[in-house]
Design a protein that fits this description.
Length: about 260
């Protein structure tokens, strides 16, 4: 139970920036702990000095973001499903590009030919899907981000970190996931025996790290070693960690149902 001198009713807002960093303290120099992308909700509890403090609506992660990155709540209709969706000034692929929205960004729009008309312009229909659409394979979602730079706290806006990649891939597949790798290890899926054969979609946990199996032998993960989202043999990752970790793999989990 939390006791405080007073309690404030949270104000429901949304991210109006392309993406904004969630920080541990109200300072641009504070460590990044997560990220919101365009259209995602934020429950603002306090605002001071140009910073808003509250929780991310999708996973209850608490932190500070720039207050000017927030705007009034809007009911989204669609979500970006590609690494970047261009927003055109007119419903024409030759029109000027106003901005680019990252994967997971939420928009409210109406159909106009092959485009979705949103607040600031037009997004091609091939780059979005209805908000309630469910991807059949979370690994296929993660594969779209191969080559994306590793970014601590990133969830798709300008880069992604290991748990952000897993969270985003599962989200588009209709599976809610917590933010951090240790939370994901403790809350997601069923534990596999050490000798269980691995398969596509299994989550492999390491000290402070997580990845998804592309198949029985290869791991897809965003990592600071390569500073990128890559596919590599799981055995290579284990070998790299053995000199500093007695137990390189801390858990293998499978999401079923």
């Amino acid at each position: 139970m939390l006791f405080a001198p007073h309690y404030a009713r949270a104000e429901s807002c949304r991210c109006v920036a392309t993406a904004t960093t969630v920080r541990a303290r109200p300072s641009g120099d504070a460590p990044a702990i997560s990220q919101l992308v365009h259209g995602e909700g934020f429950d603002m509890i306090d605002k001071a000095g140009g910073w808003a403090w509250g929780r991310c609506a999708h996973d209850d992660y608490v932190g500070y973001i720039r207050a000017d990155a927030l705007g009034p709540m809007q009911t989204p209709t669609h979500r970006v499903t590609v690494p970047l969706a261009l927003v055109f000034a007119n419903p024409d692929i030759k029109a000027p590009v106003i901005k680019a929205l990252p994967i997971g960004a939420r928009v409210a729009g109406a159909d106009e030919d092959n485009f979705l008309r949103v607040d600031e312009g037009y997004v091609h229909r091939r780059h979005v899907a209805p908000l309630d659409a469910v991807e059949p394979d979370p690994v296929a979602v993660a594969e779209r981000l191969i080559g994306a730079p590793y970014r601590w706290g990133g969830r798709g806006g300008g880069g992604v970190d290991c748990s952000g990649l897993v969270q985003r891939a599962l989200e588009l597949a209709g599976i809610a996931a917590p933010r951090d790798s240790d939370m994901q290890r403790d809350q997601l899926g069923e534990a596999l025996a050490e000798d269980a054969p691995l398969r596509r979609g299994d989550l492999i946990f390491f000290p402070g790290h997580v990845g998804m199996m592309l198949d029985a032998e290869r791991l897809l993960h965003a990592n600071a070693f390569w500073m990128s989202t890559v596919i590599e043999p799981l055995d290579d990752v284990v070998a790299r960690l053995k000199p500093t970790h007695a137990q390189p793999i801390t858990a293998c989990k499978r999401i079923t149902g």
